[in-house]
Amino acid sequence: MDDQNKNLILATVLSFIVILGWFVMFPPPETTPAVQETATATSGDTAAPIATVPTGATATTTPNSSEARADALEQAPRIPVETARLTGSISLLGGRVDDLMLKDYRTTIDDDAPIVTLLSPAGTDDAYYALYGWAAGAGIAPEQVPGPNTLWSLVDGETLTVDSPVTMTWDNGAGQVFSRVISIDENYMFNVAQSVENTSDTTVTMAPYGIIARHGIPSDAQNFFILHEGMVAMNNGELLETGWDDIPDLDPINGVPSERIDGVTNGWIGFTGHYFMTNLIPDPAQASRLTVKYLPTTEIFQTEAVLPTQTIAAGTTATVTTQLFAGAKEWDILREYEAKGVYKFIDSIDWGWFFFLTKPIFWVLHHLNLLIGNMGIAIIGLTLLIKALLFPLAYKSYVSMAKMKELQPQMEKLKKDTGEDRQKLQQGMMELYKREKVNPAAGCLPILMQIPIFFSLYKVIFVTLELRHAPFFGPFQDLSAPDPTSIFNFYGLLPWAAPDAGSIMALVFIGILPLLLGVSMFLQQKLNPAPTDPTQQMIFAWMPWVFMFMLGGFASGLVVYWIANNTITFTQQYLIMRSQGYKPDLLGNITSGLKRKNKAAANDTKAPSKGKK
């Protein structure tokens, strides 16, 4: 076995093992009184008073049906929310933002599929909402500050729109009048201005807070290691992530599993899912306290942003403004908010450890899609650009492979001359490579370079919203999903459906794209004659078809990339080898492989049976 084939097999087997491991690891209404928990309000004063930060209200387990949702929405008066991109309502009970749907996104690719529901009120499964309030400090009792179940009064505005904010108030009857002005931009950012007017003759202190509560782990959680879902926060430039399963295991604070960060500026905290998220964004100029916690008795996950304690003298008013992001993780929208002051907001997208590859890959793919208007063609264009960047390396590799073919007769002669002396053979081959200026390791470098690119592109296709439901052509209307075609129903010609994606049947009865992948790998392999070693022959013969079935369950966009990559690699290798004087006999290599199989079968048939002489 010459070094060229050793290196090629080594690189290919490594790729196979890594991709196989990857595939195995990542297969494809009643409210009760709020629970009170004591926590220290943040301020520059170390002797800040103890403030009480309430949790979200608990709820009984209720089927998440349209009837249950309608019943939950009728439990309190509401303010409609209506923009070009959002629809829903805000409950005057607690002033909760707890009913929000995204007009631009549907649950499936069907035209009549319901739009995505992001926030839901307590009393439904997957209850998920944001609320605001004040934590009582010195001079004021906990029941004299607005909490999760405070009934507010609407005093200005009828429907929350981009052009019309709404104002709600609550008078505690003890000399303090609280008001809240909520506005919204044209995308997904709410602006919440909380004010308290102290009409009493005493000074009071209190800390404003915001809460995002989620009842239980989301039913649509992907639970893939490649994707982070759960708490996401920014702490002065440091991205913090804690998964749903890990939050209950946090060290307890006051008996509750929690993680708390004090003195955060340029920070935000919230919950992120696959494509959508919510985030509390306090004033970046003020040192806030960010907390994530899990309440075991109610199974509520909660993030909090507590701003510095406010001292409100008699006859004065204090106002604090925070923001709430509730929407889709659109790259360009997050960049826009980042430019407006939400520090490193683009990092709320899970770019992973290979962010230095995933970020530029997505940037190129996004802009190609904007230019071309088709994400599938954009993936092919991205493949062309990647191959162009790697062309100098590929050129050296294929030139080296062509020279290795020219050295084949000399290598065979050297093997005969050295016999069983392996050391002498290796020394002779190294001298031959040095004399002819050939690098035997160059052949495997392009293959090895594809591994991090492949994984980074897989990450981009899986986690970024822009690839969700992105169409290509014909039946390929979602490049983030596996190939929907199947030989099981002869690609729609027979009157039954294809196997469900992710099932064993779907992995066996693969679609058109995986078949093209196998054929492209087979043709690329046949640019070179089959090795004489039987073990190498077996590995090379099975490899395209193993990859075909193994990648059949991957996102179709990734398979499109792999097909394009194989096709371009085939073309490059053929032209470069021709330019070096070596003419690949593609048809001959295919037919010779078939002849060897037929000959082996014939020999097995003619083999004499053992018997008596």
TrEMBL record:
Q: Name one GO biological process term.
A: protein transport
Q: Which GO terms describe its molecular function?
A: membrane insertase activity
Q: What is its main location?
A: membrane
Gene3D superfamilies the UniProt entry points to:
2.70.98.90
Q: Please give the residue ranges the record annotates as the region Disordered.
A: 34-65
Matching entries from InterPro entries are given as:
Membr_insert_YidC, Membr_insert_YidC_N, YidC/ALB3/OXA1/COX18, YidC/Oxa/ALB_C, YidC_ALB_C, YidC_periplasmic_sf
Q: Which residues form the Membrane insertase YidC/Oxa/ALB C-terminal domain?
A: 375-578
| Entry membrane topology | Multi-pass membrane protein
Subunit structure of this chain's protein: Interacts with the Sec translocase complex via SecD. Specifically interacts with transmembrane segments of nascent integral membrane proteins during membrane integration.
The protein's job, in short, is: Required for the insertion and/or proper folding and/or complex formation of integral membrane proteins into the membrane. Involved in integration of membrane proteins that insert both dependently and independently of the Sec translocase complex, as well as at least some lipoproteins. Aids folding of multispanning membrane proteins.
Q: What family classification does the UniProt entry report for this protein? A: Belongs to the OXA1/ALB3/YidC family. Type 1 subfamily.
Q: What is this protein called?
A: Membrane protein insertase YidC
Species for this entry = Sulfitobacter marinus
